[in-house]
Amino acid sequence: MVPPKASQAYYYGGLPIRGARRKGRLWIEEAGLCFQVPEGRGTERIDLKVSFSRMEKICLTRDNYYGSDTVLFNLTFRDETEKTFTLRFAPIALIPRRRIALQGLWFDYLTRVIEQARSSTIQG
Known about the structure:
Order of helices and strands: EEEEEEEH
Helix content: 10-25%
CATH class: Mainly Beta
Strand order of the largest sheet: 4-3-2-1-7-6-5
Shape: globular
Largest sheet: 7 strands, antiparallel
CATH topology: PH-domain like
Low-confidence stretches: none
Number of domains: 1
CATH architecture: Roll
């Protein structure tokens, strides 16, 4: 299973951090998902690394709040203290066809990784 290339993504909320709908970077490292958003005016920097074993589920929702039909990824995971968070983000590309393909690639990859982590936990 080949991980998707690093891409730009919008953060839409879900973490206990101020500021939503901010552009960041999304990529895969070793055994986890990395998501980084620079700090902005009155907003905190996001530097998140979620291991695949801590991911619980991913689902898609649609959001028309910002004036465009946006597909949001809702990734539920547990932190070190076992508290559950749902990170809301959307991988982006300017050309609609490429954006749809990129979002499909990320969704398929994360779905497979979560299923593999879940099956290895059940077997182990």
